[in-house]
Specification:
Blueprint: H1 8-15, H2 32-35, H3 51-65, H4 70-82, H5 87-96, H6 99-105, H7 112-120, E1 124-126, E2 129-130, E3 143-146, H8 150-162, E4 171-176, E5 179-183, H9 201-208
Antiparallel strand pairs: 1-2, 1-3, 3-5, 4-5
Helix pairs in contact: 3-9, 4-5, 6-7
């Protein structure tokens, strides 16, 4: 996940969809996309987007949803394209398996940026070992747990109390004190975050393969 230095609300406005970069705030009346549903900038182009532009926006939407740099996204696409399975589905599976995404979807953090920070600051363990690599790909039956220390547990407990996350089918909460979860199986296209269910991965493949 890349560090975003500009207003993240501008990113949602540019893509025309809620990317939930601010967590639950995106569902509140404060959401900038609800108040100003148009791309940022003074000079707005009103002409019909080109075929290239349509494919570019789909790729940018997926990349920014998971908070990746272009180089990182291209690396995942190359991994997916080597697979004998459907490239689009494999790409989404790889992105869903990122440790920071898994931490977010378990409800341990309010958004993916906070989940990345939780990982890099060493608050979590993977299979009993300390792990601070947000891009690490979680495998089936891997266990993710919050370190049993007050600061780490309080951070995650605060998030769990302030929101009621919908845990996807490929993940499961295995303990409450300290909070812990497990990837029961590898995610599929159907396990993708519901906020991005309408993504057209075929357009992304066409763009990246050109």
């Amino acid at each position: 996940m890349a560090r975003i230095t500009e207003s993240v609300c501008k990113i949602c406005r540019r893509e025309g969809v809620k990317l939930y970069l601010k967590g639950t705030r995106c569902d509140s009346p404060k959401c900038a996309l609800e108040r100003r549903n148009q791309p940022p900038g003074m000079h707005l182009r009103r002409n019909k987007p080109s075929e290239y532009g349509i494919r570019l926006r789909e790729k940018q939407k997926l990349k920014r949803f998971y908070g990746l740099l272009e180089t990182q996204f291209r690396r995942y696409f190359e991994l997916a394209s080597r697979s004998k399975q459907n490239t689009g589905e494999v790409l989404i599976t790889l992105l869903e398996r990122r440790l920071d995404n898994v931490v977010f979807r378990l409800g341990f953090a309010p958004n993916r940026a906070a989940a990345r920070q939780l990982v890099t600051h060493g608050h979590l363990t993977l299979n009993g070992h300390s792990c601070n690599i947000p891009s690490l790909l979680v495998k089936a039956n891997d266990a993710i747990a919050v370190k049993n220390r007050k600061g780490s547990v309080d951070l995650v407990r605060l998030c769990l109390q302030s929101a009621s996350p919908r845990i996807p089918d490929f993940l499961a909460i295995t303990a409450q004190e300290p909070p812990a979860g497990k990837m029961t199986r590898l995610p599929t296209r159907g396990d993708m975050d519901s906020h991005l269910e309408d993504i057209r991965e075929q357009l992304i493949i066409e763009f990246c393969s050109r």
